[in-house]
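As described in the Methods, two query proteins were run sequentially through the folding procedure within a single session, without resetting any intermediate state between them. The first query and its resulting structure tokens are shown here.
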Amino acid sequence: MAELTIHVPDELAQRLEPLRERLPELLQRLVETVPPRIPLPNQISSVTSPTDAPIAYTEALDFLITRPTPPTPQEITTFKVSAEAQERLRTLLDKNREGTLTEAEATELDLYEQLEHLMILLKAKAYDLIG
């Protein structure tokens, strides 16, 4: 088995500590759920198509990782993507109902569905923490 060393902020390291034994499993799940078309952070500069990183995906990532501290449970429960992202999703859903989605749009819609599932799980966990 290979050994991997990563550098994370101290606060994140503290939050990951209880999961230490499960990290390989959790990383495996993450890798399996991220479609290959999604650019990894070190590939963002090479994105040339809007379907490579849908706006809602980018907004959710920004919400979760570009803050000086992790979002509070209350912030997680109230998070919503922008009106622009919601309109894009409505467009994709309409095209899906009409049977006119392109392959790239179908991939994008799949990504939105995965993002929705993740956000439902995050919000459920946040509601549990709020009490």
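Immediately afterward, the second query was submitted; its sequence and tokens are:
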Amino acid sequence: MGRMKHQAMAKRDETLTATRIGDLLPKGIAIFCWCNRCGHNAVVDSHQLAASLGPALPVPDIGVHMRCSGCGSKDVATRPDWPSLGQVARHS
């Protein structure tokens, strides 16, 4: 059963594609950048990135073109800055 599940997951992963900068432009979603060295983070406007890097670039690949303004490292991870859901659960 494990092998069948592994093959099914591998087949599904082949069809998945990363979100591209151009996909975020109509929704006005920015890019969240995180430095893996010092933890500095920032939100960058997707329109600005699309103008300089092109709208076809996948969001995870943006980090290769970034440099941390805190420590100067090029070890930067990027993801869409999805809107917050707000408070999801209430605990008392």
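Residues 2-15 form the longest helix (14 residues). We note this only descriptively and draw no conclusion about the first query from it.
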